[in-house]
Amino acid sequence: MGEDYDVVVVGAGFGGPVAAHKCASAGLKTLVLERSITPGDKVVSGLVIPFYGFLFAPPFIRDGNPPLQKPIRKVVNHFVKNGEIYASDKSLWLPPPLALTYSAYCEPMCVWLADRAVEAGAELRTSTAVMDLIMEQDRVKGVVTDKGDEIRAKVVIDAAGTQDGLALKAGLRRKLPPDALELYMLWDFEMAKEDVDSTFGNSVEFYCAMPDEKITAPLGYGSTFYIFTYRESIHPGLGQFLVTEGKIPHVARLLEEYFENFTNTVSRWKNDIAPKLKLRAKMFDVCPIYAGLDRRIREMPIYGEGMLIIGDAAAMESSAFGDGVPNAWFSGAIAGDVAVEAVKAGDASASFLRRYDERVKAHSVISASLSDTRRWDMRWALPGNDEREMRRRAHELFGRGVWRYRHITGQVLREMKTVLSRDPMVAGKWMKMFNRYNRNCESGYSDPPSSYEPAPKAGIYSEGREAVIA
Ligand SMILES: Cc1cc2nc3c(=O)[nH]c(=O)nc-3n(C[C@H](O)[C@H](O)[C@H](O)COP(=O)(O)OP(=O)(O)OC[C@H]3O[C@@H](n4cnc5c(N)ncnc54)[C@H](O)[C@@H]3O)c2cc1C
User: Given pLDDT bands bounded at 50, 70 and 90, which one contains residue 218?
Assistant: First the structure.
């Protein structure tokens, strides 16, 4: 016997629980299926989520106590030659209690999000992978799990992330081309809180260098070496596209080699940072950072008969900052609303669900973040070894240039206007949010997990791939 739901959400990463929360709150019979043991287990270990993600996320996130690690108030761009920092751009900062971004570990964050969806009435099944779709006359009518269960749904929301295969099975999307996919390698180091605070304060660091230095992305393309900071750890990382200008490098080997070069040559790392570290894990994962800039990918549908596709599964990662969480939240909330309308109208046809596509395209942050070429354009500084040009472009991308109207300010102000027109009291809630998040990060407080205890483990894994535990 099959089971029947109004909505099945595939994936309990960042976007899935948001869509499920909307559907369950509206009284729909909602099921979330997640292949890993705990939500967020297969997402990258840790990341930083920009403030506008929280401002425009559904109220339960903005008004809640998610498990955030650290408010990041400053971005430091170091420019390196022969292992020495010859210039630094520290122009991008905000005073407390504001923050540019918040660092967070994915597993507790996604558990927290899934808990909220469960509290709203959604059912969550973990360790359950969706293997296939139930298709009837080219319409998605449900899913088939790895246990062979057939689960029917009026609407299926595909929130399965970058590794998604369901939209392909539905005939809606094609595989992402390798030149749009960046492999990232991350190293997870323990560092005492006092050391993180004294070495980095509330900042993250980006390192830029010319290709000859062999410390940032092997073939350029705007990929800097970064260090994200958490309460008691740091994650350095660097990335490289799978194919660049037709060349297929041995990406994993190059990233290892460049990381080694960085740690062996850059004085700040060797003297100020390395002595305070203990390696916990090493991991890698792919992100579709430049997918939005590729017309072929942009033109692939994000909805079909009985199906909506959100977040990374719809290639919505921001092309400038590589942040995909805000767009996963925004598209998840829009998909949830549209699924509720479709179920109430008794119409999950593609022509009804088209409104999802229209609302995603009308969203100021999603549309601007997918068409931002600043990071892509960093490459133009490389061929002529033009240091001034590299610093100018880095200033536009991760320095004060961010605040230009055509970059962040315009999209944030436009979205603020939209949200304020719906709820004029929201400005007060935003200020309360910044203050509460600030206090929570200081004290380490977050809402206790209600449905899941994160599985205890020695290190942090990503995407089910090999992780090396020190
Ligand atoms: C190295 C790296 C660094 C990043 N840094 C940042 C950052 O700093 N800031 C930022 O905002 N974003 C960052 N991102 C991007 C961010 O992780 C994603 O954009 C975000 O997680 C997308 O959310 P999602 O819900 O679409 O997909 P995900 O969060 O990936 O969730 C997908 C979920 O679906 C599950 N799933 C997949 N297939 C199935 C199936 N068949 N059946 C059941 N479940 C399934 C997965 O296990 C997973 O839990 C980074 C990504 C990487 C790889």
Answer: low
Which letter does DSSP use for residue 152 in this model? Answer: E
pLDDT of 465 strictly over 60: no
* Ligand 1 proximity of 107 Cβ (cutoff 6 Å): no
CB 322 less than 6 A from any atom of ligand 1: yes
- 12 near 126, Cβ under 8 Å? yes
CA distance 48 to 230: 9
What tokens appear for 141 in the block? 């009518």
Q: What's the 286 CA to ligand 1 centre distance in angstroms?
A: 10
Q: How many Cα neighbours within 13 Å face the side chain of 261?
A: 23
Whole-number pLDDT of residue 462: 39
pLDDT on residue 47? 94
Give the per-residue pLDDT at 469.
35
Cis peptide bond prior to 95, omega within 30° of 0:
no
pLDDT digits (tens, 9 = 90+) for 421-438: 999 999 999 999 999 999
CA angle 56, 57, 63 (to 5 degrees): 105
Mean local confidence (pLDDT), 278-303? 90
Token digits for 433?
A: 């949010």
Report the percent of the chain where pLDDT is more than 90: 75
For ligand 1, say whether the CB of 57 is within 6 Å of any of its atoms: no
- What residue owns the CA closest to ligand 1's atom 1? 184
- What's the gap between Cα 233 and its chain centre? 19
- Say whether domain 3-178+291-443 belongs to CATH 3.40.47.10: no
Test site for ligand 1: of 8, 45, 47, most ligand atoms within 8 A of the Cβ: 47
pTM reported for the whole predicted model: 0.95
CA of residue 264 to ligand 1 center, whole Å: 31
Burial of 343 (0-12, 13-18, 19+ CB in 10 A): buried
Nearest atom in ligand 1 to 50's CA: 11
Q: Does 167 contact ligand 1 (Cβ within 6 A)?
A: no
Ligand 1 nearest atom to the CA of residue 11, by list position = 34
Ligand 1 site, residue 34, Cβ cutoff 6 A: yes
